[in-house]
Structures are given as structure tokens and as C-alpha cells.
Amino acid sequence: MAELTRSFIARLRADDPTLRKDLWMISDLLRRAWSQEYWSGFEEIDSEEISTEEALELRGALLDAYHRASNKTDSWGLLDTLARAYEESIKDDLVKQLHLALEMQRAASGLLWQTLRGLDDVGEQVWEPSENSLGLSCVEMNIRAAERYLQKRGILVPW
Fold this sequence. Notes:
Layout: H1 3-13, H2 23-34, H3 43-46, H4 52-68, H5 72-84, H6 91-121, H7 139-152
């Protein structure tokens, strides 16, 4: 078995907490296994010879790790990696995640707009003179306004 693949299978089975940062590599390995033309651009991955059986074992270990995950942050990364590995059995979970993400986006967008409007109401200039936030439909404009406002105060928000 390919060394990198073997390492990832072992780490998935052991619920290695550091694995989260390497999920993209597992995704690339599996995509490479399904399509020999796939090129990740990373020598460590592109030089790995992974058979169909090894890819299925890796995807199975990934699926098992997903079902065992108790931490939502970890399960979201595992779910994304499974989707990139063409694991169709997770479709319902992806729909649930989409529903949750949409609810979170709407709640965060509403809070952002209300806070910007509140600052505007107390005399802070948060929108550019040419901007006029009409509410939740201006999400991207509100994000940029919040970033500018915070940046003017020395608060940098990384993407």
C-alpha cells in the first residue's frame, strides 16, 4: 500500500485530531485515484500510486471517521472531503448542512445589518455616501462596510 495513503488510513482510524489540516490531501489522493489525469500540483500527492482498492479503503476510513465525529467543525471538514471523494451516501447530510449554513448566513447577515444600522443611527459613518443599505438583500455591501469601519479603527478581520 502506498505510504501516504496508509498513513492517512491509520490517522483516520485513530481519530487523529491533527488530521483536519490534511483533509485536502486526502481529497486530492482520492480524486487522483478516480482519475489518473488529476494533477494536484503537489509532488507528495502526485507521486503516490493509489489503487482502486486502497482508495476505497481510504474513503471507507473517512466515512467511518465522519460517523464517529462528535465535533461539528471536524465533521464538516470530513463531510466536504467525502463529497470531493464522490461519496453519494452523504447527500442527505449535505442537504442538512446546506440548510444549517443558510440559516447561519441569514442570522449573521441580519445581525451585521442591524449592527451597522445601529452604528449609523448613533452618528457613525459606516456606509460610503453613495451606498444605501436597504436591508438583508445587501449582504456583500454590508460586509465590505463593516470591514472598512473596523479597519479604520485598527481592527483587521482575516478572511
